What we know:
Largest sheet: 9 strands, mixed
Helix content: 10-25%
Keywords: Disulfide bond, Immunoglobulin domain, Repeat, Signal
Strand content: 35-45%
Radius of gyration: 20 Å
Number of helices: 5
CATH superfamily of the domain at 69-185: Immunoglobulins
Distance between the termini: 55 Å
Pfam families: I-set (PF07679)
Structural class: alpha+beta
InterPro entries: Ig-like_dom, Ig-like_dom_sf, Ig-like_fold, Ig_I-set, Ig_sub, Ig_sub2, Neural/epithelial_adhesion
CATH architecture of the domain at 69-185: Sandwich
Bound molecules: 2-acetamido-2-deoxy-beta-D-glucopyranose
Protein name: Ig-like domain-containing protein
Amino acid sequence: xxxxxxxxxxxxxxxxxxxxxxxxxxxxxxxxxxxxxxxxxxxxxxxxxxxxxxxxxxxxxxxxxxxxxxxxxxxxxxxxxxxxxxxxxxxxxxxxxxxxxxxxxxxxxxxxxxxxxxxxxxxxxxxxxxxxxxxxxxxxxxxxxxxxxxxxxxxxxxxxxxxxxxxxxxxxxxxxxxxxxxxxxxxxxxxxxxxxxxxxxxxxxxxxxxxxxxxxxxxxxxxxxxxxxxxxxxxxxxxxxxxxxxxxxxxxxxxxxxxxxxxxxxxxxxxxxxxxxxxxxxxxxx
Length: 286
Ligand SMILES: *[C@@H]1O[C@H](CO)[C@@H](O)[C@H](O)[C@H]1NC(C)=O
Ligand SMILES: *[C@@H]1O[C@H](CO)[C@@H](O)[C@H](O)[C@H]1NC(C)=O
């Protein structure tokens, strides 16, 4: 059972205003997104991800045609979540943008300090060298397993992309009878908690496709690649490496890497899958 009371939660609004004004450099995403989008209809199809790989032209897009504009768009179901003790629930937050956004979840005390730390550790390639920024969507889930009183209170999704930062918030309220001892250690089928549905990055760059997982027992992670030539194994490509945290690293990205990268998390209880569409952009610096 979930309740979304939205705008009536003045605390949430006050908090996010505070955060946005104090963090500084906050500018209007919607406007920058609109102007970016109007010039770049093509990206809509890439972000929608519904097309076949074969539909994408091999000569486009070149970032030369792009307005070198940064943007970010974040969505989450904000408001009040009324949860029963012992149940499990997830919150989902999504961010699209350029440079590729990162998502974090924070709660507890000293929110502003936590946010400043996150800004500090989030480095995008755009600020570290002259390479054109990548563009991506990221999806993140916050799992509340076996809700208890310690889960009550505000929780914030923090999305960071270059100089942009946006906070979305929910408040968790707990109700229902107290839990019996030991009622929480139940097996849970795998859930992929973080991945990038879409990633557009310049050819030659190194990219990481995250695939964070959750479950009890802990799921195994592996990847399949669906490209022009059908499904291939990771082992056949020396530029591709499976990382310890379940992510996939692709070195010196090539046009041929265009494709759908499917992360599979499985355990004896089942599996979850998430697909990342990788689009290698042509560099305009050549
Ligand atoms: C942000 O994303 C949401 C969901 O995908 C979409 O409905 C909304 O129009 C986007 N905002 C802008 C300004 O494009
Ligand atoms: C996960 O899937 C792979 C491939 O289908 C399989 O070999 C493996 O046994 C599965 N792992 C578990 C724990 O079921």
